[in-house]
Write a structure and sequence with these properties.
By secondary structure, the chain is an alpha/beta fold. The chain has ten helices and ten strands.
């Protein structure tokens, strides 16, 4: 069973393939071998030499890789996945749903209703001082049902998000320097943690979407843009409160403000020690706070399955071609 996330966070590593094993050569003659069938995901945080046969093996096995190409952790590269062509019927249904504005609106309402409900639950869980913010989120959530366009939906989502993160501002100590959500560039530790967490989980979502035969570029809530895997953003929406709560639980134990550094542009990001603590905590979180019935992969797959339920059957005119 694939359950190991391989993290390459040391300079001058050489990664090669030995039969069905990933070999990682380290400085001073040290090396490590990891069976391919145990690898769930690869994360590259430092400059590393990786042979082409490794990428080929990852692609054949649908093992995702996330590569951070700059020190400020912006715009990571995703590699190592193939479309599952044997599930072409799902992509036909996905495209048919995309061409129906009423279905897109239904999906958008469902995704954001799940997200706003989660946001309210997170605030109520972390502090009793967030009642007013929770009420604001609840009000915007109730308005989702009457929205007639995706623009209206996103307007209420944006207003709810402002209230949500104002709740975080209220309860977080000043040492975290959090004044509200700012996606990029991240100027404070909380925004850096949130963005980093979303990026890491995006790899899990991408893998699950492709394994289920969906086109990651065809989304229902977020706009379609060339070169962007917009469907990942759709699936991420109901997951964000769960991930935000994970970030909140990291603060002070094990992550402290001392684990962050800023570059010359004042962009904040985790240092190597902080990344080690982050991934260790994420592993424990998935094993303990979450359980087998509600593990992160199962939660992602459940959301995608619910999305597929919105898709209409394949039109008869297309079925006749099978």
């Amino acid at each position: 069973m694939s359950d190991i996330t391989v993290i390459l966070d040391q300079k001058d590593l050489i990664v090669s393939l030995e039969s069905e094993t990933l070999r990682v050569d380290k400085p001073r003659g040290l090396f490590e071998r990891i069976p391919l069938n145990m690898i769930e995901k690869l994360i590259v945080n430092q400059k590393t030499m990786i042979s082409s046969d490794v990428w080929n093996a990852f692609s054949q096995r649908n093992i995702p890789a996330i590569i951070f190409t700059s020190r400020n952790r912006k715009n990571p590269t995703y590699l190592g996945l193939n479309f599952s062509s044997y599930k072409y019927d799902r992509r036909i249904r996905q495209t048919t749903a995309l061409l129906d504005p009423s279905i897109c609106l239904q999906i958008g309402k469902w995704l954001l209703d799940e997200k706003l409900e989660g946001q309210e639950c997170v605030l109520r869980h972390i502090s009793t001082e967030c009642d007013n913010f929770c009420k604001a989120i609840s009000t915007h959530r109730s308005h989702l049902r009457s929205c007639q366009t995706t623009g209206e939906l996103m307007g209420h989502e944006g207003a709810a998000a402002r209230a949500y993160f104002q709740g975080f501002v209220k309860v977080l100590p000043q040492k975290w320097q959090f004044a509200g959500r700012k996606k990029r560039p991240s100027k404070d530790p909380i925004n850096a943690l949130l963005s980093y967490t979303y990026v890491i989980v995006s790899g899990n979502i991408q893998q699950a979407l492709i394994e289920k035969g969906l086109d990651t570029s065809l989304s229902f809530l977020h706009s379609l843009q060339p070169g962007r895997m917009s469907l990942i953003y759709d699936i991420m929406e109901p997951l964000r409160p769960l991930l935000d709560h994970f970030v909140f639980k990291l603060l002070d134990n094990p992550i402290t403000p001392g684990y962050f550094i800023s570059n010359k542009d004042q962009v904040c990001y985790l240092n190597q020690q902080g990344r080690k603590a982050f991934f260790s905590a994420m592993g424990r979180w998935n094993d303990t706070f979450l359980n087998y019935e509600r593990s992160l992969p199962r939660t992602i797959n459940s959301i995608i399955d619910d999305l597929i339920d919105f898709f209409p059957d394949i039109p008869q005119s297309i079925q006749n071609r099978f």
